[in-house]
Amino acid sequence: MSLEGSLVLRIGLDDTDHPLSGCTTSTFDNLINLLLERIPDSEVNERTLVRLWPFAERRTRGNGALSAQITIDGGQIGEFRQSCQEWFDGVLAEVSDHPPSMVPAAPVLVVSEGPVPEEWYWETVSGHVDLEPRLEQVRAEGCWVLSGERLWGVVGASAAMAWVPNQNSTWELIAWREPGMIGLPRQITSESVRLMERSNPMTFVNRDPTAGRGLIAPRTPCPVLYGIRGATSESVSEAHRWMQARTDVERANSWAVHRTNQLSDDHLGTVSYGTVINRPKETKGAHSNVAVASNGNRTSLVAFSEGGPVNRLLRRLQVGDQVAWMGLTAPDGAIHLERLSLLNPTPRVAGRPQCCGKSMRSGGAGQQLRCRECSSKAVREWVSTDADVSDIETVANWSEPTPSNRRHLSRPLELGLPGA
User: Model pTM?
Assistant: First the structure.
């Protein structure tokens, strides 16, 4: 150890990939391995994978950024900087070869020698962040910024560095493919994923039982083989070893465990409440919406067809129903639902009383109802029934999309109820 002592550096990276190739997780792993190789006695304390605001205009394919804390000898800071610069020059060269894209990569690496403001994370996970103000804040904190001409990656990179793990943190082990396998179909059977979750009960959201398929493998030709999510670092590591011991699973080239904000609901606010004020409407694509009165304001709730149970429940709503929900406020002000609960339904009108197998009819203005078959009379009223939504999948009266259609950030009901 030099006279300078040890130094804990925080590094963040975002926006290196292309919609059809590459992955920031793999690019970041290359940097970590280079630093560990070049800097004696360096140590990675923790890696993090941080998902960001789902409506971000320049969101990347997985809408996530990477960060790590790495301890080095203070006397090695020069070697650290040189290694980062050489590596980043290579990233820029790689990005320059990307095919044309509507949103070209804008990689940025941010390095800090101390903690950064936690609000950077909360601003970026819950709403839009302008580039210039964030860049000024990053530089004002004394951070070192590596970039090309485009600096959009600074928003996600700084947010990843600022995230402070808490009790809602989860873990994801990411395994990468052998270079020669990238672009070829992944060799992972759905049966292996099903048995993996059964054998490793502290892993979760790795399979969609409603569709009978695994969720761990990307659908794009990127370097990632799979990502296994779980409650602890040990659980995902053990699940990875279990998978790699099977003959029906492709061999991984390398892997790393990341602490994540996935399944945290950090992108959402608190539970909201309101009363339905119009009948649900169906739009093109089988999406649905309904208006509610909430805190004196009219709000539009939107459920996309992919929302499954949420969409079906919204379609059953009637005027007067009291509901609770959680969702994202879209740029147009509508709430894109992620969870919906029918708290206090109004009675459903079934029709007039029955007599002789037919509905009774009005005897005229102010008159009782009358059976046309036997002339029996009854009080003028409508027959109603309780709302029946028992065929819609719920947990403690809350509905949510199926696992295949949830956001990375959304917390499954099985892991905790809204407001609990």
Answer: 0.89
Report the pLDDT value the prediction gives residue 13, as an integer from 0 to 100: 98
Is 410 domain-assigned?
no
Residues 6+ apart with CB under 8 A from 132: none
Q: How far is CA 279 from the centre of its chain?
A: 30
What are 388's two structure tokens? 């029946």
Q: Of 128, 162, 196, which residue is a domain's last?
A: 162
Domain range for 197 is: 170-260
Here the CATH number for the domain that contains residue 313 is: 2.40.50.1010
Q: Contact, 52 vs 156, CB < 8 A? A: yes
Instruction: With respect to residue 418, please indicate whether it lies within any of the assigned structural domains.
Output: no
Q: What is the DSSP letter of 165?
A: -
pLDDT per position as a tens digit, 149-188: 999 999 999 999 999 999 889 999 999 999 999 999 999 9
In a domain, 299, yes or no: yes
**Count of domains observed in the chain:** 4
Q: pLDDT (tens digit, 9 = 90+) per residue, 105-143?
A: 899 999 999 999 999 999 999 999 999 999 999 999 999
Residue 217 has a pLDDT of: 96
Identify the CATH number of the domain in which residue 197 sits: 3.90.600
**What b/e string do you get for 322-346 counting C-beta neighbours within 10 Å, with b at 16 or more?**
ebbbbbbeeeeebbbbbbbbbeebb
